[in-house]
Design brief:
48% helix
């Protein structure tokens, strides 16, 4: 299938590692011009070098704190300057603080709001003018499997990921006439540093080993294992491609069948 991504300009947030990096790599494999963003300049440059070495496509990259609106504006200005426009936006951000209701104060709530919802709003605001001018675009918002089923011990994530669903659904309705398609994709247990961190937290809380905690989770997944970042990225790239012409306003999980919701 031709995903019609050759020479398209794709901005991927939080893309120095994990799901963001895997998504950026997958777009580069399709010949897209990718702009990477992360707060960690060292990891960012390393990711860009690795993508270039593997695909022959040289990414643009810029240090960016997604909670800083000026950083987001500068990121999109750079992408447009280097590649002429922005065709595709993949919104992504690190997960918020773990814990239940009693462990979160007002500052924790505000930080999670700015990181996991307001950053998406601001990035969309920067991307839309380019997409409207181009006669179309694609926005993919990375959330969590909690958009289908709450995750134990992740109150802040459970709350703000659902905000992403509402944002995506509304944008899909408002901008469909401009051929701008907007979808949400939630990862289940994908083998990333973030999931390893959460497994260790759970292991420490329950007094078990990390391997035991991971095995318990694997038993709840019908396919019997954690997903790989590259597997998750396949869904991102299709929904963010111009081979996708009619899927919009949807919330999809890539979780090996582990969530119980329809």
């Amino acid at each position: 299938m031709d995903l019609q991504l050759a020479k398209k300009s794709v901005v991927v947030l939080a893309s120095s590692k994990g799901l963001g990096k895997a998504s950026a790599l997958a777009f580069a494999r399709e010949g897209a011009n990718v702009t990477l963003a992360s707060r960690d300049s060292g990891s960012l440059k390393q990711a860009a070098d690795e993508i270039y070495e593997e695909t022959g496509v040289k990414p643009s990259f810029k240090e960016c704190d997604v909670t800083n609106p000026e950083d987001i504006k500068a990121l999109f200005a750079q992408a447009a300057s280097e590649f002429g426009t922005v065709d595709v936006l993949v919104n992504n951000a690190g997960g918020p603080k773990a814990g239940g209701f009693d462990s979160q104060n007002d500052e924790d709530w505000q930080t999670a709001f700015e990181l996991n919802l307001l950053s998406f709003v601001r990035a969309v605001r920067e991307a839309l003018p380019y997409m409207k001018k181009n006669g179309g675009g694609r926005i993919v918002n990375i959330a969590s499997s909690s958009i289908k089923e709450p995750v134990e011990g992740l109150l802040l994530s459970n709350t703000f990921r659902m905000g992403i669903v509402g944002l995506s659904k509304t944008l899909a309705k408002e901008y469909g006439e401009h051929n701008i398609l907007v979808n949400t994709v939630g990862p289940g247990r994908i083998a990333t540093d973030r999931v390893a961190e959460l497994d260790q937290i759970r292991a420490d809380r329950l007094g078990m080993s990390y391997d035991e905690a991971k095995k318990q989770h694997e038993k709840t997944i019908p396919v019997g294992r954690y997903g790989e970042p590259g597997e998750f990225a396949k869904a991102i790239v299709f929904l963010g491609s111009f081979a996708n012409t009619y899927v919009t306003g949807q919330s999809i999980v890539v979780d090996g069948g582990s969530t119980k919701a329809y």
